[in-house]
Amino acid sequence: MNSRDLAVGIFFMSQTALGMLGNSALLCCFIIADFSGIRAKPTDLIVKHLTWANFTVLFKGIPQTIAAFSQTYYLDYVSCKLLLYFHRVGRGVSLVSTSLLSVFQAITISPSNSKWAQLKIRPPCIIGPSLGLCWALQMLIYAFIPVYITDIRSGRNVTGIKIFEYYAVMNPGRKINTLNAILLTSNDVMYLGLMICASGYMVFILLKHKQKVQHIHRCLAAMSSPETRATQSILTLVSSFVFFYTTSIIITSYLSVLEGTNSWLSNAGVAMAACFPAFCPFLLIRHHTSIFRLCCPSSYQTTFCACVIREL
Question: Is 3-293+303-310 a CATH 1.20.140.10 domain?
Answer without folding.
Answer: no
